[in-house]
Structures are given as structure tokens and as C-alpha cells.
DNA sequence: ACACCTTCGTTCGAATTTGAACAACAGGAG
DNA sequence: CTCCTGTTGTTCAAATTCGAACGAAGGTGT
């Protein structure tokens, strides 16, 4: 029986979906990276840090929590927050209830930088992805990839 | 009029699609990277190099062409091909019709490595992405992201 | 109070990625 | 042929990323 040792390979449709996903992801990242760097001097990762902080209560998040949201390593976040701190866009604040804890907090300057960088970034995301897809495609994408993300986040923690 | 200076922000549905896409992409890459490294000692990028070579006529591709398929920088590819060459999985061969040209060619050992690594990788892609989605979702994803990729590849070249 | 296990953020070294600069060549236009 | 423009792959320095190891606390059970 072929199912014993032979894996279930991807059929053409599945392969097309997978290839499209990988290609779109890489190409999109590339473009957004360039645009943000040229336009605002920020990397995509740094921009995302500012976004997540601005969306959080008190414009601040614990380092670990922020690392989870960004899907990056803790050490990687430490590095980037230090970079942003040097540029005055983010500040570190110690946590009252836990001596080990560190809050990353958006500064006024960071908020201003985000206000300046966001329009161009959103416009490009719209041009390259959102406006290319129909309303139905967007809904399916949100639903499907939302489920994929949710599952991935689950068996990551235990 | 708000349309003069105010950008068109993403509505909740659009935001969900964009967030889902970014999160799924990052989480997926993370998992595949770990699995490949532990299972075969390959990075996802290196694995993709082997895949693209094995799918090419003569199991070989020009460096630039390969870099385009992988959506990576030429210098990045130079580095990775050198790594793979040291491990005997890939060989460089000069191009007959163009003295500057360099072919990256899959070796027998590289083919064997791919044969060994592919099943586990495909199984994980299936478990984490393909089998999570319905047939319809897969079709939409292939169609939509295929279009997105195609457009991105176009205004990259000129 | 004590040992034990987990969590928090950082540090460290190694690996990887990038863009710019480069040298060598290809492919015409004149 | 000769100049010009575009390509090709590599090199280089700088920036970024990751995982493992770490010190310092938190939390729990006894």
C-alpha cells in the first residue's frame, strides 16, 4: 500500500495555493520593507512594534507579550526595542508588580513617527494586496488564515 | 473632503485579512524553519533552493533566475549556494554561452537530501495549512494570491 | 522557611541577509 | 571596430536574526 511509506504529496491546486502564499508573502515583505525604509527610515518590524504599542492600553506592552504579537524571538525584540529607544520612539519602563518585567512604551515622538509613516504604508498594502482582491476573496482569506494562525498559536504554547 | 489628505484606512474585514496573512506567514515560517533544521539540518531557504533546482530542466538554474524564483537578493543566494556547495548538495557550473553566467546544479547527494527531507516538510505544510482549509478556501487562496504575486513580479522588473 | 520549577528579559556568539560597490562581460548603435 | 548601456555574480561592511545560556525573580507545594 502506498500510504504506508509514501507521503500525501500536494496536488496541483494545493501546490498553487502554497506557492502563491509563499511568493506573495516574500514579494510583499520585500516591497513594504523598501517603502518603509525609504519613506520613514523604519524597518517593517520596527513599524509593527509601533503599531502594536499604539493599539495597546496605555500605549505599552510587556516585552514577552509584544514578542508574541510580533511572532519574533525575545532576543530579537530586545534588539529592536533598543534601536527604537535610541531614536526616542519607544521607552522602557519597569513593571510595578513584577521586578523582572519591562514595559515597552510608545513615546510622543514615536506616536508622531507612526502618524507620519502609516498613510504611505497602508496605501501600499491596499494597492498591492487589499485592492487586488474582491470582497469575497478578502473574507475567505481572513477566515482561513485566521484559523491557521489560531491553531499555530495554540500548539506553540504548551 | 476627507479624501484629500486622509488615507483610506483598512476597515475591520480588510484589517482581519491583512493581520491574518502576516501572522500566518510568520508563524508558518517559524515552524517550518524549526522542523527542517531539526529534521534535515536545512534552512527553509536552502530547502527551497533544492526544490527549485530539482524542478528545473537539467536540475540546474542560472543564479539570477534562481534568485528571482526564490524572491531573494543575489548576494543572499551567492551565500547560500556556497553553503550548499560545501555540503556537496549543489555544484556550480559555468555557462557555455555566457562567460559571466553561473549555473547552480543539484548533485546526486543533493537529490538524495531532498528525497529525505521532502516527506516531513510536505506533511507539516499539509497539517498546518493545507488540511486546515477547505477545498474552496484553497482555490480562492491560490487564485487571489497568485494574482497578487503576478502583479508584484511585474512592476519589479521594469 | 525551604527546595523546585517556571518565567522574564538580556547577553552572547554564530549565522544569515541586505544593498552598494565592483569587475568582467554581453549586446547593440553608430 | 568602438563606445555605451545593461547584466552577471561576487565581495564587502553593516544590520539583523536566532537559539542557548544566563542571572534574577516569581510561584507552588511541603
Q: Largest sheet of chain A, if any?
A: 3 strands, antiparallel
Assembly context of the chains: homodimer
- Return the string of H and E elements of chain A: HHEHHEEHH
Kindly report the spatial arrangement of strands forming the biggest sheet of chain A.
1-3-2
Report on the structure:
- The structure is a homodimer of 158-residue chains.
- With 158 residues, chain A is mainly alpha-helical.
- Helices cover 65% and strands 8% of the residues of chain A.
- The first copy, chain A, has six helices and three strands.
- Chain A has helices spanning 12-40, 44-54, 63-70, 74-86, 108-128, 135-154, and strands at 60-62, 90-94, 102-106.
- In chain A, strands 1-3-2 form a three-stranded antiparallel beta sheet.
- In chain A, strand 2 (90-94) and strand 3 form a beta hairpin.
- In chain A, helix 2 (44-54) crosses helix 5 (108-128).
- The longest helix of chain A is centred in the first third of the chain and has 29 residues, at 12-40.
- Chain A is globular and about 60 Å long.
- The two termini of chain A are 35 Å apart.
- At the A-B interface, helix 1, helix 5 and helix 6 of A face helix 1, helix 5 and helix 6 of B.
- The first copy, chain A, binds a DNA duplex (30 and 30 nucleotides) through residues 33, 43, 45, 62-64, 72-80, 83, 95, 98-102.
Amino acid at each position: 500500500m502506498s500510504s504506508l511509506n509514501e507521503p500525501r504529496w500536494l496536488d496541483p491546486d494545493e501546490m498553487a495555493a502554497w506557492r502563491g502564499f509563499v511568493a506573495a508573502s516574500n514579494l510583499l515583505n520585500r516591497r513594504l520593507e523598501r517603502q518603509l525604509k525609504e519613506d520613514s527610515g523604519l524597518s517593517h518590524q520596527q513599524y509593527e512594534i509601533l503599531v502594536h504599542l499604539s493599539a495597546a492600553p496605555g500605549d505599552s506592552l510587556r516585552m514577552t507579550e509584544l514578542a508574541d504579537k510580533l511572532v519574533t524571538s525575545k532576543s530579537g525584540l530586545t534588539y529592536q526595542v533598543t534601536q527604537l529607544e535610541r531614536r526616542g520612539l519607544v521607552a522602557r519602563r519597569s513593571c510595578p508588580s513584577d521586578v523582572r518585567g519591562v514595559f515597552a512604551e510608545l513615546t510622543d515622538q514615536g506616536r508622531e513617527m507612526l502618524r507620519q509613516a502609516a498613510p504611505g504604508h497602508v496605501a501600499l498594502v491596499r494597492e498591492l494586496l487589499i485592492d487586488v482582491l474582491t470582497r469575497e476573496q478578502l473574507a475567505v482569506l481572513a477566515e482561513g488564515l485566521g484559523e491557521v494562525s489560531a491553531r499555530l498559536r495554540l500548539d506553540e504554547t504548551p
